[in-house]
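Sample pair:
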Amino acid sequence: MARIREIASGLQFPEGPIAMDDGSVLVVEIKRGTLTRVKPDGTLQVVAETGGGPNGAALGPDGMVYICNDGGFDWMEIDGLTVPGHTPHSYTRGSIQRANLSTGKVETLYTQCDGHALKGPNDIVFDGNGGFWFTDFGKVYERSQDRTGIFYAETDGSMVKEVVFPMNGPNGIGLAPGDKKLYVAETMTARVWEWDVLGPGQLGQKKGVGGPLLQGPGGASLLTGLPGYQLLDSLAVDSEGYVCVATIINGGITAISPDGKKIDHVALPDPLTTNVCFGGKDMRTAYATLSGTGKLVAIDWPRPGLRLHYAA
């Protein structure tokens, strides 16, 4: 197990970490419905009240934090772990929100695309053109689950489009160095898919036999599929192009080489390890959210992380 430095505890199912240049880390607290700043000494400061279930988060070109809000969960406490459950009766919709770090004001940018409601937006990444990709995991009910996909949107609320549909619970999303590829992790299948990025909101499709039924979603190529019972959550990419995916059940971070041939696993002490981001002066610090136990931790990473567009 890696040497772990605990940064903060007492968080209410943290996800969506953003490492800031001042040494603090922004996280969302899904159960609490907040965007929260974790200071280097572990002090917690609520930055914004989002309501619902804030999930993935990213800094945009305007310095605002863009948030995937999944609309919330029912919650359970099992063996000392906080665990999300089914969709609550209070659920109304999912959305993309924008939070002002200075004032705490939260705006809703998108709640639907082409007449279809956003169900459970999950993770988000900005490209160098100022737009953002996001996944919609959907919502899970007692006897059904939403069919969802991958979207691309502009920050001014003027455009959101569905780029890939359908997928089976798309979760983590990230871009390769130079924005050359888009990666998406499917939770329940433990698969990581990849596409060539042709331009803002445009993906190349792998041609294969048998038509769409026998191809990856949206013409994707399979980077890897993990064996056994493992679930995948959010991801980050490091400077050498390794796709670093937070792994549930087999709690930790799974690092997959750009060609998919090498897979390393860094174990962490929470089966609900959900998110990872990179920060620090040399970008060699990996911050991970241990959501079941409500902690933010840091570990040294063998390669520098990839600095995100608009990081601050």
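The domain at 18-237 is CATH 2.120.10.30 (Neuraminidase).
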